[in-house]
Amino acid sequence: MKDNNGKLSYFDLHCDTLTKLIEKKEFLRSNNTAQVSLERTSGYSRFSQVFAVFCPPGMDSSGSWKLLTDIIDAYSGELVSDARFTAYLSIENALMLDEDLSGVDKLAELGVRFIAPVWKGVNKLGGAHDTKEGLSSLGVKVVSRMLDAGIIPDVSHASEQTFEMIAQICEDRGKTFVATHSDSKAICSHSRNLNDSQFRRILGCGGLVGISLYRDHLSEDGQCGVDTVINHIDHYLSIGGEDTVCFGCDFDGIDKMPDGIYNCADVEKVAGRMISRGYSDETVKKVFYGNARVFFERNGIKPL
User: Which pTM does this prediction carry?
Assistant: First the structure.
């Protein structure tokens, strides 16, 4: 399960840490506020993280651009990748984008690798999981331009209709897409989760699905621990996801987690429990690091 140095490697597709830290003016390396810090990842052999810039509902385009550039300015010195740490940027709720599609190209130039167009309700790009709205005409143009710019669509907050439209655009163009932090609807029927058909669409495009640690997405009855997390992993593996499932814990975007998991250092507990439940070292390594690493290499996704 562990590398030659006795440590596990960990790759995570989604956290809201930088958005949280900039509000408190705290550092990424060491802080008293966030569930993710570089110090807390010292127990991992390698740590790779996609840091999301979350644009809250009601924020206008200029405010969203300012939030992104402020975060880049404040944390660029701490987001320097090295042999152990790699950092990437994503956008969650892309409120900065409008009819001027050159904004998509600007995001790519700034290092944004994934975009979730929607979050909750309806924005100018389309409908989220709590609606029955699909992509708007602008949303269709934005997703297409994203693919041109090398930015990968993230369907984690999409409605079924938005999911279908993004999936179809990607499939028609032979491109991939991801759900950076979405659990299985077969285990928990929350609207944010993926049904088996949706998971297979992502698998078929060579995409990734990250396991979220938000308690309400993991369990309907309030009982939620490390085994509940593994139940979602197990279901995805059972429907062909050996090369697809990974983590997208949503740290610093969630306030209710499984029993025994409080921050990024605790994710390693999932690995230990997977081994005790009979998973092979190879499978654990793929879920924790290998699947995401191969995907990023295959798609030429460069760190900051």
Answer: 0.97
